[in-house]
Model the fold of this input.
Amino acid sequence: MKNEKNAQRVDYGIILSVMLLALISILSLYSTTVMIQDEGLGMTIRQIMWYGIGTIAVFIIMQFDSEQLWKMTTYLYIAGLLTLILTLFLYDRNMAMTTGGRRWVRLGPIGTIQPSEFVKIPYILMLAKVVTKHNSAFKNRDFNSDLVLLGKLAVYALIPIILVFMQNDLGTALVYISVAIGVTLLSGIRWQILVPIFLVISLIGITLIVLVVYNRDLLYSTGLFQPYQFARIDTWLNPHQGRSGTSYQIVQTFKAIGSGGVFGKGFGVSDVYVPVRESDMIFATIGENFGFAGGAFVIFIYFVLVYQMIKVVYDTKNEFYAYIATGVIMMIAFHVLENVGMNIGLLPMTGIPLPFISQGGSALLGNMMGIGLIMSMRYHHKSYFFSGEGKEFHPGS
Done:
């Protein structure tokens, strides 16, 4: 009877989705590195090992209920900020010279890790706590209280965003921004405040694109932008006319995906060379090997995963959990949207991996930690249900 109750506390829909993505990841990396690039099994084995570590992380995080997460959040957030600050001083110099980014830290035989991927989790927890605590303090929300909440979210979100941006990691900074936007939209701040802000941000974005095309010297003079960022915009607008390595990479990706047709060329079959195919461009392998059908199937699995995470929120009815889930969903959804979008030319290159599929231990572990948070929701909700308590911890109540 006890085992049956424990089984009902586990969300098998989420587990199945992640397992399918793990299988696609391992097969795609094997196809890319062993069959196409003839590089051996090393990268595939490392990915399996990271999945093992990620599974352990999911199991550990599942053990923490909402009350425990609430108490830990502030300490985790501070530790995350300290980690981002230390990364600015302890970053791997060789990686920085090669990529221009100061986001990696070398840990001896383990290799390099990207701390900003792990800090996403305390970042999401902190934003969720800020909104939940504010809503508990202000039972009757008005215009002024909404402005106060927006200010709180801006402060707690901007500090890590700025630190990540200082690491020359625009892609990860955009992920942090997308998480903040998702939590803000769900927080209940009235549209009279959000719409003008959205219009101003849109105007700034359009102005920046215009300046990149017609007067980028003005942007250079601010010292906030790097040449590689302009190169990525140029590649996005005119991929076939650029001469940079990024232009070559994206054009080759177009060729690989396009040549796959509807059902692909077959597993491990490739006639097109794509640089860094195992990482940011792993979707090129899926498209070339399995065609439009394979790419559509992968996107469908992501859709099912997101649906399952949303369903957990509706089932558990816990405000703190709802904002946590929003952050995790925005993190994963933005990764998928940006990665697939840049692979097919709809969005500019940002160096964002495909969640659960691209090679990379830090990103994979960060995503698995997010899954652990979602899994803990149903796990502890069912625990309360079976114990007969009939209620869960509601922060601030």
Notes: Residues 282-316 form the longest helix (35 residues).
